[in-house]
Write a structure and sequence with these properties.
5-stranded antiparallel sheet, 7-stranded antiparallel sheet, rod-shaped, 56% helix, alpha+beta, Beta-Lactamase
Length: 458
Amino acid sequence: MKIKFKLSILMIAILVVIVAGISFMLLQQASSISLELSRESIAYQASQQAEYWKGREDGYVRVLRTLANVMADYEDIEPELRRNRFDSLLQGTLEGEPLIVSLYTVWRKNGVDGMDSAWIGREGSTATGQYAISYSKNGSVITGETMSQADIDTAIANMDGPTARIDMAFDPVPARVNGQNTYTFKIAVPVINPETGQTVARLGCFISIAAVQEGVTEIIKNYEDIAAFAVFTNSGFTLGHLVPERVGKQLRDVETIFGDNTDAAARAVETGVEFACSSYSPVLGSNVEIALVPLQIGNSTKTWTVMVAVSEATVLAPVRTMTRFAIIIAVGAALIAAIIVFVILHRITKPLVDVTETLKDISEGEGDLTRSIDINSKDEIGDLARYFNNTLDKIKHMIIVIKEKSATLSKIGGDLATNMTETASAINEITANIQSIKSRVMNQSASVTQTNATMEQI
């Protein structure tokens, strides 16, 4: 594998690790922020819903307070007209408020007109003539009746106790409304004499919780982010719920969405404080983020609590969007970085490649030493190319000198060869002369030997 590709892979791998690491850290931070913002959004939604429900229920309180203010001016009405005037007022209000199923008022003895004994036997008067009337609505039919002594005693006790000047709200009780079994809850306000400041009567109404369940169903339908919604009283009574079968039951007995946080959630509902947790909902089949926000009914001590639950998929949707975006950005950055690195490394390693190609041509080709490498950089690679060119120049000059010297040596060798040939010829002549002399000496030696033999014979 070429060094350019090796360096490219190494650099790209390093860049990918760096980009991935930075992206992961940024994504973790962004996810944490997004998750926190989502939780704050859930708490805000719960607060908004609490405000909405407080507005709904306080609407009934305002109706009662308006009636109470009118009744508080009873001394401006002729005594004998007061009861009939108030009866008409209650009936007209009940006709105009479709969700109120019953409306009542209880006055102190001789409190409304000082004429209790004169009204004995009248509808809405007790055996002593005390004004205590209740109007109920069944469909479009409104009927009136005198309240029970137990309810009267309770109202009088509230007028005389610490709750005399405040609104009161009560837990729902079983009731039959328009032929159906349901629950109704009671709200009551004081009627205060503006001159004396004394609470002279109690005015209250009963409201069917069917309207609460309808509201809960409508909210879940209209708000896509809200996976579950419920309304509880501070006694734990379920007024409205995602699962209608749980209406009328206690939170601790039937609620499963809080999981291990059920006790903490129940205490928050009972004490009327905000609460938030993460849990798993068996009904929804997913993890959820839950927020509980209380609301006060009028100025009473009674609180309701709204529960808003949002599924994990909804909570993490922004995180998943950011994750996809981060991945796209990281991949894009890695590709761009890879291209840039490849181009830069190509420029950096080009002199090395040229050196390699030149050496290859010299070793495997015709050995052209006149080639040189263009120098475009002033770094170590550029120095390598420059020194390589200098080395080639020196080798080239050395070869030229060697060629010149070789020619001279070749001429000298030729001269030496000629001289050697002439010397060899002379040596051959000398050798022939020596052989001739040797022959003559041998002939002369034979003559001497013969002469010596002759002399011995003589």
